[in-house]
Specification:
Blueprint: E1 13-17, E2 20-27, E3 30-39, H1 42-61, H2 69-72, H3 84-95, H4 101-118, H5 128-139, H6 144-163, H7 172-178, H8 192-203, H9 212-221, H10 225-229, E4 243-245, E5 247-250, E6 254-257, E7 264-266, H11 270-279, H12 302-317, H13 326-337, H14 342-349, H15 353-359
Organism: Leptothoe kymatousa TAU-MAC 1615
InterPro entries: DNA_brk_join_enz (IPR011010), Integrase-like_cat_sf (IPR013762), Integrase_catalytic (IPR002104), Integrase_recombinase_N (IPR010998), Min27-like_integrase_DNA_bind (IPR022000), Phage_Integrase (IPR050808), SAM-like_dom (IPR025269)
Keywords: DNA integration, DNA recombination, DNA-binding
Amino acid sequence: MAVRSKAKAGTVVILERNGRLSLRWSWQGKRYQFSLGLIDESIGRAAAEMKARQIEMDMATGHFDPSLVKYKNDTGRASRELTGQLLLAEFAKSKAKLVAAKTLEKYQHVEKKLAKFASTKLAADYTERTTILFRDYLLTQISPISAAEYFSVINAAWEWGIAAGLLKENPWKTMISAFKVPPIESPQPFTLDEIRAIISTMDESRAYRYYTPLIRFLFGTGCRTGEALGLRWGVIAEDISQIWIGESYKRDSARGATKMHKARTIYPSEKMQSLLLDIRPNHYDQTTLVFPAPRTGGYINDNNLSKRVWTRTLQRAGVPHRKLYNTRSTFISHALASGATPAKVAEIVGDRVETIYRHYVGNSDGSKTLPDIGI
């Protein structure tokens, strides 16, 4: 798609064909056109605009080169003005409508780190030596696992830059394969005694007892926190026999697909059905949240829930701290111990069977109903 459908005299039109950009214009009665070899994405468009303005300026000032050698030899001009930070910013912009809000936040964090490390360094000037220095810089501030994730984002940005015709080499590839990350710590599920201590401590707290049903739901279903916070009564059967899980709460009150982008239906145990019946309001509609914030009725702030409610409850209960997300690991572990197969558990919690096999052990069971782990 061209930037302008019809060019005025002395202007250069940007054209798109098969995903690639080219320029077309007329000068002294002769028509000109040549391909830039750039992909039709935001940064490619920016480079094409720069080239078009250069040609227009040359035509206006009498410096136009009708052989086009001057312009074809200068197609790398954009890369000579492209810093690593700008490359990451443009990469994130191109992915804005394709990835979740949390992923975009990660891109922004990576961009800031790279900017602090070398704000003016051109993307084309990065070498394997530079990647090593950046790795050492990162490891003084974040964990090896987080650093590896940062490198993965940067590597993807450089590959995107190459595909857009802005870069020729990607120095991050070698470091990606050589980056040594310690093995991920195995899940540490809560024992039944710990679960009961957490629930009773929360129930006895005037400040936090409101959140008890939510915590019991997380322990009893293995749902991700965002899935529970975004759960609406409209996706739960009238008799609470089925719950459709296909959306997840994202920060800033946004809604999106589940982490695996795949909907699923779960079948609550009798205890879980009873819990939901107890908290279901007399009057509700399809969009009413199952676990609304106590004061506003909107979404519960997951940061506040995790850092204040959850952490303080564990301290008061005398239970060693694990992340709120470990309620999911707890359900998986106890479900497998009760006889559910890894395939069945993966289906229930919306994860890959390989992930369940990698971190857990299970036996066999064909029941659809959620295992009752005693919550």
